[in-house]
Design a protein that fits this description.
The chain has 253 residues and is mainly α. 61% of the residues lie in helices and 0% in strands. The chain is built from eleven helices and no strands.
Length: 253
């Protein structure tokens, strides 16, 4: 026997990575699914790995790399879900009103979806069920529903592109210990001339978005390949989702 024992591959993490890859590639190629948080999260995981010199294709036989990439996918998935939830709250505050009843919140959400022309199978099913219960709904619930259909206006949102960009890029900030100065540099490159050095980024991240970095005055954790590949990854792969924000009424036509 060899003096060095070969590490046994259990395939638990590798198989999980393969399952992710197969499902997302099939979905992408069929083009049957609309915008979904899993697809862009998977793309961010893959491109981030490449930016720091790792080949995600090797994860099918490398349990350590597979475990790392699975963890990164989950973090990217969380950031995309956070983005979706934040936009939804701005889009229809009444659907997130903790002082309201579940029925009123649902009436508000479905009214907004109908106002936007959402024709997804899930929304159609929920709308049909909601309308079929017309006789059981209170006048207040029905008024909420019709009001959102005909009079809905999203909340005033001062920095929609910036906020969604920050939420989506935060996994990089956390992992590589970026400072607020590093983050400001990234947004100034993404939005030239819009956010100067006097913009209080820390207060905006903390108070408006609930985003924090423990590294306020130090230097970012240096990856062997340096900051440039990560900065390029953020600029090229983290979107502002301007078209989606415009469709929802947060940006001008």
């Amino acid at each position: 026997m060899s003096g060095t024992a070969k590490k046994k591959i259990t395939h638990t993490d590798c198989q999980r990575f393969i399952d992710y890859s197969f499902a997302f590639r099939r979905s992408y190629r069929s083009q049957k699914e609309k915008f979904d948080v899993a697809m862009p999260a998977y793309a961010c995981m893959w491109k981030e790995a490449e930016a720091i010199g790792k080949d995600p294709r090797l994860a099918t036989h490398d349990p350590d790399l597979a475990a790392e990439l699975n963890s990164r996918f989950e973090r990217w998935f969380e950031s995309w879900m956070d983005r979706q939830a934040f936009v939804a709250q701005k889009e229809c505050p009444a659907a997130f009103d903790d002082t309201s009843t579940p029925a009123l919140r649902e009436a508000a959400e479905l009214g907004v979806r109908l106002h936007q022309g959402d024709k997804s199978a899930e929304i159609r099913k929920r709308l049909n069920d909601f309308v079929s219960r017309n006789g059981e709904l209170s006048q207040r619930e029905w008024r909420m529903f019709t009001k959102m259909i005909h009079e809905h206006k999203p909340s005033v949102w001062k920095h929609p592109e910036l906020d969604t960009f920050l939420i989506l890029m935060w996994p990089v900030v956390e992992r590589f210990n970026w400072t607020y100065s590093d983050v400001l540099d990234a947004i100034q490159k993404k939005f030239p001339g819009r956010y100067g050095d006097l913009f209080d980024l820390k207060a905006h991240c903390n108070k408006v978005l609930g985003l924090h970095t423990a590294n306020e005055r130090g230097t970012a954790r240096q990856h062997p390949r340096g900051m440039a590949p990560l900065s390029e990854f953020v600029q090229q792969q983290i979107p502002t989702q301007a078209d989606d924000l415009r469709r929802r009424g947060f940006l001008g036509k």
